[in-house]
């Protein structure tokens, strides 16, 4: 049976940038059937479960295009360290302690956070326990892009083993959970994967028609070291080895990159996940997002893990992304309000190569969220787009649907037991 | 009768940076009586109303050191304009429409927002309806620093009239509401007040022992124009005219200032309100806060008005302030986690020249807030300082006390009628 939600302000994020002041959406588990202004007719109501949105704001679910949910219980482990120290002294030793249960709980906590703040789809780049996570996501109902990421600082045999594991996970789970799970291959970074290994991974991805996700140009030191060793920027090396064209890339960070790189990215059709808060917190720098946008790259947004963020609220991340560009370039109209919403929705679906979400239109899948306008920080109420970008918090989200199924209804979880999960997380962290 | 809140994690923000894992606070409307670890003894419980905090986090109330609550209903009026255009085309024409009722409602909305996000004290720089606002604040119970700000681009007679009005408001209301209201004088900015007028205002402030609040060096254009006209930076002009030493200054913004200016600020004991989100949003730039801190200036935080922010959540503002410095300087340990909490609390009380708040210790007044630790984004729970800075949201605040009186209790307003105020705001903005 279809569901009909009426009396909503609908921000469609479609090509025409349609915002419906008062309207309705009819959908089912396969797709969105109708979106229209005004009251539904008697005919449109027939055969539906109806729900009055009471003026809530309804928009596509947010897409988090770079993260590591397995690290969620490392939140706050070390807040004043730069990337390399932070990895070597804090993160990697802590990860040695992880087991199946800690990973499960960490990921459940991250899904609680994501659902409660309006994220319907996320990218997880990690090296541990992927099949278990995929199966858990099936139960929870979120949309996710998963991959077994690899570090290549090891023997050729180990490299091959890791790649085989990645590929077997990716091919087994791509399209699972009714298409909600997609997969990628993921060399961790150019400074942790020798070029030949990246070659082999990209070749495997092309053969299997899988996208490739990689950290790129996160810190200045990494670029200096790479140039010392290879005589060029890692993106230029990828181009020289003909790894860009014909590969569905999603690069995370892209902080230390310049005009000519964004030209190349645009020409080759690669995607970017911008991670402003993590880049700031670790002292990595400020990614030149205004340049990326100028080159027509559909920049998306990722939080990175909460060990370097330290939260998963994409509304705050979107706001931060916009404000940062205006501040650093001293230009208030450089990245416009609406661009923020695109980064967090439609551009996220482009970045993950999942086309049927990110905008609300008939035929697309029904991944959407609702926010309560009844907040002092949303007054005056009529300036909806402004408030979504410059005032909204994850906590304003009241409802989350993925593929037409509710995961969060009037702030209650439908598929997860929040109290139980938080109690488990507490018992582990003691 | 005293109140005793026990079973709380107490972040005192005292000189020793004391954090009490499980403890209690005894206080009344005059001051804090005891703060200690563990369980209160039978004797300490005697003659008190007792309340179990159930593990909540208890910390000093946040201090917002620069804002314009009267502008609250201009939120979202124009989000993609630089400061000068924004003022001339959007803000000033809109302000022409203000009347007593719109101002009253705008300010009530801002107080609802501030209380609900943990702000206990704020600075309001505005030119309209100050006495009415002061009387309203008395009823609501917040702490505030108020002033009738002046623009001097007018005849000498008008200048004198405005100054007289400012001074008469300031002297009449300083110390009102049991000391919760303090006042300042406020020349709007060096580009809107000729130097002679600033001279006269500062002289009046010295005579009346009042601090002076002013926008300073907000945009690059403003500094260029000022230097064309006066041959020096506005701060240098203030020094040349001997207006810095012996005056209790609070400067807002301070974006386009350099090492030598911070040396001067430090020597003269002036205070700074850093307004990161507003500076970013209007494309004004990034204030060199790391330099300010290196010079030992106790930088405080202000939101500016919601027309350029667009919210009043000081937790987000504090986080933004820290991350920004790390990002722009590419150094993760440049502004440490704890510094963020200082900026939003104790430094705020220094910036407003109100000494009995900002830190929790016996003898200080009981201005404090509580946050619920029961949030997925606060796991693992034991890393309290990290979470307060890098994960907390205004919406995590559950309780607000000023001078020992509750303004917000388990998320319910005690002294304000939120529904009524929001309904009025809605009817006005239609």
Main traits of this protein?
homodimer, 430 residues, alpha/beta, Urease, subunit C, domain 1, TIM Barrel, four-stranded parallel sheet, 16 helices, 17 strands, EC 3.5.4.28 (chains A, B), Metal-dep_hydrolase_composite (chains A, B), 5-methylthioadenosine/S-adenosylhomocysteine deaminase (chains A, B), EC 3.5.4.31 (chains A, B), hydrolase (chains A, B)
Report the span from N to C terminus of chain A.
Answer: 46 Å
CATH architecture of the largest domain in chain A: Alpha-Beta Barrel
Tell me the overall shape of chain A: globular
The main β sheet of chain A shows up as: 9 strands, mixed
Instruction: Count up the domains of chain A.
Output: 2
Percentage of helical residues of chain A? 25-40%
The CATH top-level class label of the largest domain in chain A: Alpha Beta
Number of strands of chain A: 17
- Number of separate helices of chain A: 16
CATH topology of the largest domain in chain A: TIM Barrel
Task: Report the average pLDDT across residues of chain A.
Answer: 96
Family (chains A, B): Belongs to the metallo-dependent hydrolases superfamily. MTA/SAH deaminase family.
InterPro entries (chains A, B): Amidohydro-rel, Deaminase_MtaD/DadD, Metal-dep_hydrolase_composite, Metal_Hydrolase, MTA/SAH_deaminase
Catalytic activity (chains A, B): S-adenosyl-L-homocysteine + H2O + H(+) = S-inosyl-L-homocysteine + NH4(+); S-methyl-5'-thioadenosine + H2O + H(+) = S-methyl-5'-thioinosine + NH4(+)
Function (chains A, B): Catalyzes the deamination of 5-methylthioadenosine and S-adenosyl-L-homocysteine into 5-methylthioinosine and S-inosyl-L-homocysteine, respectively. Is also able to deaminate adenosine.
């Amino acid at each position: 049976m279809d569901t009909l939600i009426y009396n909503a302000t609908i921000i469609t994020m479609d090509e025409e940038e349609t915002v419906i002041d008062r309207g309705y959406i009819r959908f089912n588990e396969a797709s969105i059937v109708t979106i229209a202004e005004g009251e539904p007719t008697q005919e449109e109501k027939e055969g539906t479960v109806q729900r009055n949105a009471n003026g809530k704001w309804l928009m596509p679910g947010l897409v988090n295009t770079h993260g590591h949910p397995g690290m969620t219980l490392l939140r706050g482990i070390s807040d004043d360290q730069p990337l390399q120290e932070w990895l070597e002294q804090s993160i990697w030793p802590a990860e040695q302690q992880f087991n199946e249960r800690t990973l499960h709980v960490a990921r459940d906590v991250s899904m609680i956070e994501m659902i409660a703040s309006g994220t319907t789809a996320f990218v997880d780049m990690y090296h541990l326990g992927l099949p278990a996570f995929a199966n858990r996501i099936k139960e929870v109902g979120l949309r996710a892009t998963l991959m077994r990421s690899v570090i290549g600082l090891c023997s050729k045999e180990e490299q091959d083993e890791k790649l085989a594991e990645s590929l077997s996970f990716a091919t087994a789970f791509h399209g699972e959970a009714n298409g909600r799970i997609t997969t990628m291959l993921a060399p961790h970074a150019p400074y942790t994967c020798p070029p030949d290994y990246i070659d082999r991974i990209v070749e495997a991805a092309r053969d299997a028609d899988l996208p490739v996700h990689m950290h790129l140009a996160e810190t200045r030191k990494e670029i200096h070291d790479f140039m010392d060793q290879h005589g060029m920027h890692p993106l230029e090396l990828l181009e020289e080895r003909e790894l860009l064209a014909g590969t569905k890339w999603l690069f995370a960070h892209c902080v230390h990159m310049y005009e000519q790189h964004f030209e190349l990215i645009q020409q080759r059709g690669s995607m970017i996940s911008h991670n402003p808060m993590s880049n700031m917190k670790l002292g990595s720098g400020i990614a030149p997002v205004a340049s990326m946008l100028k080159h027509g790259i559909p920049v998306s947004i990722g939080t990175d893990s909460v060990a370097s963020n330290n939260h998963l609220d994409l509304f705050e991340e979107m706001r931060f992304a916009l404000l940062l560009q205006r501040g650093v370039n001293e230009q208030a109209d450089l990245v416009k309000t609406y661009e923020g919403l695109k980064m967090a929705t439609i551009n996220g679906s482009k970045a993950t190569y999942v086309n049927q979400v990110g905008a609300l239109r008939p035929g697309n899948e029904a991944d959407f969220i609702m926010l309560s306008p009844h907040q002092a920080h949303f007054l005056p109420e009529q300036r909806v787009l402004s408030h979504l970008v410059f005032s909204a918090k994850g906590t304003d989200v009241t409802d989350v649907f993925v593929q037409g199924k509710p995961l969060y209804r009037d702030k209650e979880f439908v598929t997860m037991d929040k109290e139980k999960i938080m109690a488990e997380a507490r018992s582990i962290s003691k």
